[in-house]
């Protein structure tokens, strides 16, 4: 212990970080890893009228497409998303319901066996949803 | 990004034939703008034609004393080339004022001309934009328009051309060589980029089945009295609020030739031939420069967030001409503006 | 993650993911052959297909420099490069700078000068600095700062990064 105090020691994580060996959150490759791609809204405000995932589900390597229609159960009370330092206001719950609240809001999550398949789905996203905008339009 | 087919062009003729045959195809060279736009879903080509291996990477001397720059010469190679450093240092300075070293290593000369505006509404497919979707409206005119144009605007579009290199090329009066299905043609630099008018979707005079093959520089490089002065929110790695390429030829204290081009203020590098002509025969002093600046900025129109650019451009023009007259060009690494 | 086979998986003919292209890259001295979709960037090819996660994805739009690698000796942003466009090229990543377990002088200088905190920008900074020194254009600290401006650091280790590069430059 005494040898550390008062002496200039290089950071213990130094070697790992300068060699690229240090691993960050998205860098753990494990067997059975599934890839996700987020499909985002193309309008800033409105409601999702329909989501048709039949075409997307036929793509080789696609496992599922999560939308507000088939997502896992989510807590409904704000308390479930709040801690002591939470900001004021209501939390955003992705895929919660059919409302579009902001531009580029996530409206579907593609799950696929490969990153290629997940990425490819983004080019068929026009078949995934159609949304009815509401509120004032730009002239 | 949509699914696309990737192909390579074997030579210029093949490139022209391929693009002429497919209205949804685009050339890719450095990719620094196109790939960015494809990731944002602004550009959606179904076929990408790789021209990066075409033999357009040479810089050759021309018999009239000028220089021919191949369209695929990387920006960094161009900036550091000994002939450019020696004879056209204003061009080198302007290139080094833009982007980052990594991007300059990737970006091609032709691509720098063809890069598209960075207007954030153009980049956002959820917003009306007459450039991206003709007829949908312009979100910038009544929106956040700090980075937008004050000159040459129209009711349809107030976007700017983001290049630094092009401002210097405009001041140098470069010419652009292009090849299409019917052969070669040469455009004066001032005619290459357009003003938005009522067709903002068309950035420049290049037909969709033409390819830029080279940029020619005339013999005059203004190597003794020049500057490229770029004013931006950060010291580096940001687009210009206002930039000035200024170049002079002097006989003692008298101006015999002048070139002034502005960046960051219009849909193309902004020059006024009358302002340059008015400087000829004048003493190289602040009064002369002020008159030229007034002519250059004649008709400037500010919007809600960018009216400051008018006075900034005026003062930057005077400062740039002063730097050029003194032979003390702005350093792109020592950021103090003297 | 538990198996996610959905009961809605249809048995109709599946739509294949569009054709892959064969891309050959010499990465850190080793020739690698990959089958890639055309839209795979060099960055994704390195991280996802070659498991070389040292090169980082920061912005994916060429604005942060975390993805800086050396291609045929030049520093570039791997996120704005399609892997297929670099077919046949030599790529050096952060993992390739060490020689026989000895750190590259720039790597060592970064440790000596504590030129990082979280470390996420560090591989990009180091690759960029290696190229900067080879380019030979930067002499003063102003010039180092300007020619490193394509590499952002949110931890603001900049003064130490410049000092590290100065040290490595003086040694080379």
Structure write-up:
- The complex is a heterotrimer of chains A (139), B (338) and C (172).
- Chain A has a domain at 33-72 and 93-139: Aldehyde Oxidoreductase, domain 3 (Alpha-Beta Complex).
- In chain A, the strands form two sheets. Chain A has a three-stranded antiparallel sheet. A three-stranded antiparallel sheet of chain A has the order 4-2-6, with no helix packed on it.
- Chain A is extended and about 65 Å long.
- Chain A has helices at residues 14-19, 54-57, 115-121, and strands spanning 35-40, 46-51, 62-66, 99-100, 106-112, 129-133.
- Chain A contains three helices and six strands, in the order H-E-E-H-E-E-E-H-E.
- Chain B is built from twelve helices and eleven strands.
- Chain B has helices at 12-21, 34-39, 75-80, 82-87, 89-96, 101-106, 109-114, 165-172, 189-192, 273-279, 286-296, 308-326; strands at residues 5-8, 25-28, 47-50, 59-61, 67-70, 175-180, 183-188, 211-217, 226-231, 242-251, 254-263.
- In chain B, the strands form three sheets. Chain B has a five-stranded antiparallel sheet. In chain B, strands 1-3-2 form a three-stranded parallel sheet, covered by helices on one side. A three-stranded antiparallel sheet of chain B has the order 9-10-11, with helices on both faces.
- In chain C, 30% of the residues lie in helices and 15% in strands.
- In chain C, strands 2-1-5-3-4 form a five-stranded mixed sheet, with helices on both faces.
- The longest helix of chain C has 14 residues, at 122-135.
- Chain C starts with 20 loop residues before the first strand and ends with a helix.
- Chains in contact: A-B, A-C, B-C.
